[in-house]
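Hi there, hope your week has been kind to you so far. No rush at all, and the record is pasted right below.
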Amino acid sequence: MLPSDKIVIGRRELAWLPDFGLAEVKAKVDTGAYTSSIHVSSCREENGVLKVVFLDDKHAAFTGREMSFKQFRTKRVKSSTGQVQERFFVFGSIQIAGQQFETEFSLTMRQGMRYPILLGRKVLNKRFVVDTSKKYIHASIQQLA
C-alpha cells in the first residue's frame, strides 16, 4: 500500500527546470545517489561568479546560453566510477510529475550519457515512490503556469 501523499514516478521522467531555461529534459531516477546532478558542457568560476552552460548540442533542450550564478558551493563527491571529484553545486527549481520545488544540483560533465539529469534521494524522499517497471508516467504533464 502506498502512502497517499506520495506520487508514483517511473525510472525515467521528464523534468522542467525553469530557473535554468530548460524544458522536457530526460531524467533518470537514481536511488543510489544522494544529490541530483545535471550535465553541463561548460562550467567555470570567474571572479567569484560561476559561469555555466547546461547540457550540450546532443540534447533537444540545449540552448547554448551561458548562465551566471553568484550563489554556489563546491564539495568533494565520489563519482559513479568511484573517483573523488571537486564539484560545483547550485540551487534551482525543478518540476517533476506536476510538482515544483527547489533543490540543489551537482554540476558534472556527463558526455555520452543518455540522461542529462540524475534524480537523487534528496529530491525523491517524502515526495515520490519509484515504480521501476514504468517510464515517463508523467510525460504528458505540462509545466506549471
